[in-house]
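agent> fetching stored inputs for the pyridoxal-5'-phosphate docking request
agent> found them:
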Amino acid sequence: MTETATGPLSDAEAAKYRDEFPIFDHTIYLNSCSLGPPSRRVQNALRQYAEDWSQYGAPAWWLRWLPQLEAAKERFARLIGADVDEVTISHSVSSALSSVASTFDYSDRSEVVCADLDFPTIPYQWLAKRRDGVRVRFVSSPDRIAVPEAAYQQAVGRNTAAIATSHVFYATGAIQPVRRLAEIAHDAGARIIVDGYHAVGAIPVNVKDLDVDFYIGGTLKWLLGGPGLTFIYVRRELIAELQPTISGWFASADQFAFDAEHLEWPDTADRLELGTPAVATAYAGVAGMDMIVEAEPGRIQQRIQALTDDVVRRAQRAGYGVFSPLDSTERAGIVMLEVSRPQETVAALGQRGFTVDYRPGLVRVSPHFYNTESDVAALMDALDDVQASL
Ligand SMILES: Cc1ncc(COP(=O)(O)O)c(C=O)c1O
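agent> prediction call returned; pasting tokens
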């Protein structure tokens, strides 16, 4: 691969990356939307974490760990087109959303708009605030694949604090028109909060182009760095006015002053941080994200589009329902197939050497850039066999 390479990642380039993933020695892995597999460089990074801990003890914080956490923020910032001080670290999407949700004053505007297709933890942040009079207004999907823009337009109004929704829906792969949703929110004087877990790493993301206020992502899935590390982007102009009501000493402007009586926030997104981060995740996360930066999100997206197109084509030929957008420009790395008895189907496919998963009523197939057309062909043949045998 050269820096000037364009077009989808080639088979040869993909094969070079695939060689770094031991998981392919025993299974055809097509479940990156659930959990990205570990590459050898991620495994080495975790070993390095253990060595640094063992070598230095507490000074590892200064010598290795804080720089590694900063590197993780820098990689994520680069992947979403943000500045590093607009990005902070969290532990899960739930904790990240919870920090963001705590910055709103709901007395003027008490509604948050979410989609019925969103991952539950998104609306849960506000359903949990019922006692404070906060209400979640759900927009719904008529086709169970995507939500029409008009539904957001109708739901957002003078009482809307924010639209909080996904960039890519976890159970359909549909890419939402986030820039348009940001316009709808802003026109009504509301904010937009986006969960980009299934976007960053699978499609190019630029938070400035999207014009979002908050954007959350993490290393669990498409960024290939494992669980326990998420990020919150905050639009620079908003940082100074944010007053989170959950906090911790990592959110303090001068945490090593140990001034228990005063909480001063920094003018960076770190004012949304909580307590001591899980440092091992930064080692794994940087190694995972480096591979995505290197392979280039634009080229990854094109390869994923070709692979998911292939899944769709073969599924249609075999007569399975497809509950994902048929147009590859509206779809990220997830294709949902309507088959009979999905749970048993996934187990039977597992026995035949394929890793995919299911959601209610559907099998979920999610190729990443290291997958190939022959993975897809073999999976779809095996699916036919399994369906015939049920
Ligand atoms: C879109 C989306 N958001 C969030 C999560 C998980 O949230 P958390 O990090 O809080 O477990 C998932 C699934 O793992 C998801 O698919």
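agent> quick read of the result: The pocket of pyridoxal-5'-phosphate is lined by residues 92-94, 119, 121, 166, 170, 195, 197-198 (CB under 6 Å).
agent> awaiting further instructions
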